[in-house]
Amino acid sequence: MRRQLAARSCWGWLAALLLSAGCAVGPDYEGPPDVRTPEGWSGVLQGGLTPADLDPDSLATWWEALDDPRLTELIEAAIEANLDLRTAEAQLRQARAQRALAGANRFPTLGSRGAVTQSGSFSSDGSESSQLYSGGFDSSWEVDVFGGLQRAVEAGEADLQAAEETRRDVLVTVVAEVALNYIELRTSQLRYDVATRNLALQRETLQVVRGQFENGAATALDLEQATANVTATQASLPALAQDIERSKNRLTTLLGEVPGARDSQLDSPAAVPVPPLEVAVGVPADILRRRPDVRVSERRFAAETARVGVATAEIYPKFFLNGSIGIESISAAGATGAYRVGPEVRWPVFDAGRTRRQIEIQDAIQEQAMIAYEAAVIGALEETQNALTAFALEQDRLRLLRESTESAARAAGIASNRYEAGYSPFLEVLDAQRTVLVAQDEEAASAGAVAANLVRLYKALGGGWSPLDPIDP
């Protein structure tokens, strides 16, 4: 009769615990804070972007708009082998395991035990010994009455999603860095080619002046100025060569390779990928929320909100259902068994305010995560607006520089003809040649800046990953 009453009492406790489980304490996550943007905010692009270019699929492979097969090859290689991406993938696997661990805490644990004990006694009359065989199973289950374990699972899920977004953020950054360094390489090679071609013309001019000086038709001043012009142009070549080497080395590092591994592919100069100058479109503010860094901040805010519930649950009692069953025997002939099953309550009565302080700490951490999200959105708006402005204005500058280069080239031809005809001093020829060199160099640099600003714009818009494809490292 007592056994029946005890069993009914245990099952009654279990039913009560199961019915009361699921009441999660702490705040429920209701989404990120609303970060206000200027009413009707949108950026204005000048360039070859259309509304179709802003959909997720187009943004995922934005580099195809630059139409450079070599760049596409490098980006694909970086996606496969970049070391930062591999680290982010390992962190993602870690977050998945931690999420699974948090979920496992909601299930019962079951363990087994077994032992053989040799015991005995001895005296002057002799000695005696015996063996004791024992074995059994133990189990324990924390019933999540106040939702502390549920909140821990919610935090783990948000951490996992943050790790996924972090990996995507690294992907966006790596793709943009490959493109920027590739553009820098092609720009430096173009500027090196401009300087080399101008140096050849300046050397021809120097030879003419030297011949005229030997014949008494030119002064020593003309000869020294022509020599200085050649030397100044020569002095610019080592710095440009250094920029070329630096860009190549940075590219190989981004690809997870040693310096020099791609020299055979990158040494031959190629055109700077410049987008067409065509259409103006608006960029809605909502598109910025697809940026992985903004999504990382939002998921971290969600995780810290859940952890407020984890900390709050420590105030309340914890309920466990424990049980064990075992046998003991001193011989193989017979054995005795015993079992134990029943609920257990653990509730800290006094902890000098430690739990309350921990809740306050977690509340402050949650507030910091919320502020970090707001800062990420505002920073995204700033970066996008700057990229939009730079992209549009650099296109205007490039157009003016091309006109300036053409005018400078015509002026250099006129100055050379006037000098040969004896109508103007040699100084006009030198000034005209220097103007041509500066104009061509600035045009080359601006062409690279237009392409680089487009890359920065795509990065600001979160381009470089597809939200339609799950990440599976």
So, CATH architecture? Up-down Bundle
β content, as a range? 5-15%
Q: How many strand elements?
A: 6
Which value, in Å, is the CA radius of gyration? 37 Å
- What oligomeric state best describes the polypeptide chains here? single chain
- Largest sheet features: 4 strands, antiparallel
Whole-number count of domains: 1
The string of secondary-structure elements, in order, is HEHHHEEHHHEHEEHH
**Per CATH, what is the topology?**
Outer membrane efflux proteins (OEP)
CATH class: Mainly Alpha
Please name the fourth-level CATH homologous superfamily. Answer: Outer membrane efflux proteins (OEP)
Proportion of helical residues: 55-70%
Could you tell me the mean pLDDT? 82
Question: What does this protein structure show overall?
Answer:
With 473 residues, this protein is of the alpha+beta class. It has a single domain (29-108, 145-318, 354-460), classed as Up-down Bundle (Outer membrane efflux proteins (OEP)), CATH 1.20.1600.10. Helix content is 61%, strand content 14%. The model is unreliable at 44-48, 278-282 and 467-473 (pLDDT under 50). β2 (109-123) and β3 (126-143) form a beta hairpin. It has helices spanning 2-20, 56-60, 69-81, 83-104, 148-214, 220-254, 263-266, 292-313, 354-420, 426-460, and strands spanning 42-47, 109-123, 126-143, 279-284, 318-329, 336-346. The strands form two sheets. The chain has a four-stranded antiparallel beta sheet, covered by helices on one side. A two-stranded antiparallel sheet has the order 1-4. α3 (69-81) crosses α5 (148-214) and α5 packs antiparallel against α6 (220-254).
